[in-house]
Amino acid sequence: MKPNVLVLRTAGTNCDVETDVAFKLAGADTSLVHIQNLISGKVDLSAFHILAIPGGFSYGDDIAAGILLAVEMKHKIRSALEQFVDDGKLIIGICNGFQVLVRTGLLPGVEHSNNGNSEIPQRATLAMNTSAKFECRWVELETQQSSCVFTRGIKSHLYLPVAHAEGRFTASPDVLAELESHNQIVFRYDKSSKYPSDNNNYPNNPNGSDADIAGICDRTGRIFGLMPHPERFLTKWNHPRWTREDLPDEGDGVAIFRNAVDYVTATFA
Predict the structure, then answer these.
(1) Domains of the chain by range and CATH?
(2) pLDDT 10s digits, 246-268
(3) Which of 164, 36, 64 is nearest to 122 (CA)?
(4) Model's pTM, two decimal places?
(5) Are 164 and 207 in contact (CB under 8 A)?
(6) d(C-alpha 48, C-alpha 4), whole Å
């Protein structure tokens, strides 16, 4: 079977095509679906195995990045979303999608009931970068030991681009300790980058995230969010030094999407 992936769109989404291509490259069938088609019932979320919330500036980042789309998801499709999670399916949020998942409470994780009456708390946030500006650069990531389905067997270091103004992951000391103890930190910004900076923290950690966190998952490992863009590094020609370095044909981002497809194929076959 081919996994079915729903790539979510709304006003301001601008990385949906790249995310669609990435999942197709990994062997999935994909559909680009506007949030209003889920809200109206025109499209049934249960028909899909993976929900991908791509990057961009949903609703122009009004109020705060990702918050309006998060509100729609929490209050307009909550029951369908909770059932999707309860069915053991996968969710990935990239950049703005990560911001959405954090603001819905799906990351770092949440207790919820099946009757749709529970309130979903937000337990972390993605705040303005400490540089107080939009950061668009490539970063080194260090893969952490985690339960994340999307990063199983992945190499220890990845090189991916970031492009955000509100990417600073921050949470209370208790939540950070919980993430550590339950192996929910998936990627950290690698401050020992082979492309060093004058300042060991910035820009290697481009936003000032607590504990250098670049990506996290929930306790099941099936819900994953990250600020860097794996869909923007699918082939060596996406790499900024492809003319100067001997690079493999496949970009570092592909493995993340392939892991998701392989997991669904094995689990739902």
Answers:
(1) 4-268 (3.40.50.880)
(2) 999 999 999 999 999 999 999 99
(3) 64
(4) 0.94
(5) yes
(6) 5
Q: Which amino acid is at 21?
A: V
Query: CB neighbours of 144 closer than 8 A, spacing ≥ 6?
Result: 183, 185, 186, 187, 188
As a whole number of angstroms, the distance between CA 86 and CA 117 comes to 15
The encoded tokens of residue 166 equal 């509100």
Active site residues: 95, 229, 231
What is the C-alpha end-to-end distance of the chain, expressed in Å? 6
- The backbone torsions φ and ψ at residue 30, rounded to the nearest 5 degrees and listed phi first, read -130, 155
Tell me the two tokens of residue 76. Answer: 């307009």
pLDDT tens per residue, range 28-64: 999 999 999 999 999 999 999 999 999 999 999 899 9
Q: 237 — phi, psi (to 5°)? A: -75, -10
Return d(Cα 246, Cα 244) in angstroms, integer: 7
